[in-house]
Write a structure and sequence with these properties.
It comes from Pseudoroseomonas ludipueritiae. It is found in: Cell membrane. The protein is an all-alpha fold and about 300 residues long. The protein is about 75% helix and about 0% strand. It has helices spanning about 1-30, 35-50, 60-80, 85-105, 105-110, 130-155, 155-165, 170-175, 180-205, 215-230, 235-255, 260-285, and strands spanning about 115, 205-210. A two-stranded antiparallel ribbon has the order 1-2. The longest helix has 27 residues, at about 1-30. The radius of gyration is 19 Å and the shape is globular. The termini are far apart.
């Protein structure tokens, strides 16, 4: 039971990193990223390949995951600069599917659908409970570090400028803000955070395969950020842990339904997740932690 709880906490921490990534790109910058699973996968594969095949240390693999995902975020963002904002959502969704299909078909690069097994972990797996505790500690440190960074950014001139870009690009540009630069920086940083989440997840499971990065992950993270509050780091973190708790609790609730097959249980879980979101948005339309009104500097 303790191992199961630790596993849920590690997954919750990974989702908290993904939620903070989405909070930065969507809640703070107004950039709808439907390809979150793609950057998640890039980070996992970058770290898994570098540590398994090139035998680099795990911390270096984490850094490479952040750099690769951030670079991909820059490419995706710059490719949509001349398009309307809603096209970014379409491009990122297509990007995530391209990443998954490449990982599935380019056997020489990613080992195809067989995936990469034996990915080095933070602690030896034969240490039992300490393996889960060590991974949880690493994940919590990562969540705390990203949370602290985002808090600093949120209250900095950069964060205020980014909110101005989100509210009205034209007004921000007239005020002398480089809209393109702010968007690219925010999207690249958000992609790097998602890549870090993928790397931690890959080293925890010791296995990376295309089926782990379905679009459903992006939907789950949108649910977490929407429920928690899409413009506050604390809301993203709380929403992610609550989502995992809700998903795991529905696993047991659906088993109590009489005469329901395993496939129907999975569908029933998704129904319960949707009903939970409707309930939260009905009671708290702005999420559990709505965005605070911003004060002008010096006031």
């Amino acid at each position: 039971m303790i191992t199961y709880l630790l596993f849920a906490l590690v997954v919750g921490s990974v989702y908290a990193l993904l939620a903070q990534s989405l909070m930065l790109s969507w809640g703070l910058a107004g950039l709808v990223n439907l390809g979150l699973a793609g950057f998640f996968a890039l980070g996992a594969y970058a770290s898994a390949m570098s540590t398994s095949w090139a035998h680099v240390p795990v911390p270096v693999g984490l850094l490479l995951a952040v750099l690769v995902a951030s670079g991909a975020g820059l490419v995706v963002c710059f490719s949509t600069l001349r398009l309307r904002d809603d096209y970014l959502a379409i491009v990122t969704l297509g990007f995530a599917e391209v990443v998954r299909l490449v990982a599935s078909n380019e056997v020489w690069l990613t080992n195809g659908t067989d995936g990469i097994s034996g990915v080095p972990s933070f602690l030896p797996r034969d240490t039992g409970l300490w393996f889960h505790l060590g991974t949880l500690a690493v994940a919590l440190v990562a969540v705390g570090a990203v949370y602290g960074l985002q808090r600093r950014l949120l209250h900095s001139p950069w964060g205020r400028s980014l909110r101005a870009v989100r509210e009205d690009e034209t007004v921000a540009a007239v005020a002398g803000k480089n809209v393109v630069r702010f968007k690219a920086q925010a999207f690249s940083l958000a992609a790097g955070i998602a890549g870090l989440a993928g790397a931690i997840y890959g080293h925890y499971t010791s296995y990376v395969a295309p089926d782990q990065f379905q679009p459903l992950i992006t939907i789950y993270i949108f649910l977490a950020v929407t429920a928690g509050g899409n413009a506050r780091p604390a809301g993203a973190v709380i929403g992610a842990y609550l989502l995992v708790a809700f998903l795991e609790s529905t696993r047991f609730l659906t088993e109590l339904a009489p005469g329901v097959s395993a496939l129907q249980q999975a569908a029933l879980r998704e129904i319960l997740v949707g009903l939970g979101l409707v309930l939260v948005l009905s009671l708290r339309p702005d999420g559990l932690l709505p965005e605070r009104p911003q004060k002008a500097p010096g006031r």
